[in-house]
Request: fold
Amino acid sequence: MMGSLRSRQLVSGFTIIVIGILVLGILLSVVIYQSRTQEIKNELSTTAIDLLGYLEFDQGRLTITERNKAEADQFINDKRLVQDDKSRFAYLWDKQNDSIIWNSIDNDRVNPENVHDFVAYFDFEKMLNDERIDSTDPYVQRLDSVPHNEMSETPAGEQYMVAALNFDYRAQADDENSKRDILFIVAESMQDVDEEIDKIVMVFAILFFVSVVLILLAQLASSFWVVAPIREFEEEVRAIETGEKDSIEDEYPDELLPIKTTINAMISHEKGQKQRYKDSLDDLAHSLKTPLAAIQSHLESKSFRDVPSDHPGLAGIAAELEYMHEIISRQLRKAMVTSENAIIMAQPLRPILSRLAETMRKVHRDKDFEIRVNVDEYAKCRLDSEDIMELFGNLLNNACRFCDRLVEISSYNDGDMLVIDIDDDGMGFPSKDPAKLLKRGIRVDSQTEGQGIGLAVSTEIVAAVGGDIELLVSPYVGARVRLYLPA
Reply:
């Protein structure tokens, strides 16, 4: 599926217009051909009936007599039946003698027996057996010529439009043997029509390709003009991501106005919600600081001066107070808006992962292991920097705690998601239902410190941005945590 609106517009518009022109061109060629063919059919049919009226019986045969010869010659000339190229002609064919007894080209000025040397023959037997031939209505059909003998000048297979009338007569009224079956033929070569159609097709092909080029140029120009507001809209969204703008301000076509309104409303709502969240936690932190300070003051009062500084109870209380201060500070930092924008900008991961790797080496300095960061410097994900630190801090800390000698971080892109694998060569996850570890309070090892919320918090961070987290088996036979984050 094409991801570009410009590509979709170009392909759809171009395809529809080109197919439309092609179909119209084909229909136009067919209509012109059928129109010319029907015109020739009608004219040949009329010519056949009119010319047959000039033929009379003379001395036992059918011909044009001297009485109407001048008028018949004029008609033959007007109907172009005497052309030298023999593209249009008429003749009478005698079935019994298998010969032409009259033709319009010579009009009895040469021996009729030689006529077959220079006029087209057709499949007369097939024509006579066709039920459509009768003595009143001409049979009109496009036919191929057939060779009559080796001397025929007309090549076999040439196309003609043929109007034929079938009738019989007796050369002598009282002689049954003098009966003759006559086929009256008026034919016109279709070569000129075919050449005309070929020229039309050629002209149309040239116009078609010129039109395709012009349409393509017009579509390109139109696409830039139509898609320009979308590109401007995209640039404004990027400006919001980089902090150059607070909202979408420019004017856009009606189709983009609902999106503009929705995004601006979302930004405004998100800003307000984050500010309220920040204020609430800020108030909570300040509220807790007072009783914590009071507890600290009590510990430092005269009542506890006589208690040794290494007293287990006091040391535990001091440690818990310090831990509570740390929790309040961390949650307050997390609630603060690091950017003025509600839209989170894509963050490069490699620098953050490298810093975290150095931190983990120091935290677990009593352990001999290696951390490999195999993440491309161009790998980015849309996640708040504080969330990135907490997410990968939790996961890397777990991997370093449970690894034997190696922790490896790798990544690759899968569509619009960045896939990150965190592998170790430790004991791995339990074989039965490892997904339960993603719930709060569930821990892999109860012998180590922690509250069992690291994976749960990581899951919540990933889910909040529309990502996913999977617990798999590492290629190093340890644990693999696979993250799907929006790129």
The chain has three domains: 53-189, 254-335, 346-486. Residues 53-189 form a domain with the Beta-Lactamase fold (CATH 3.30.450).
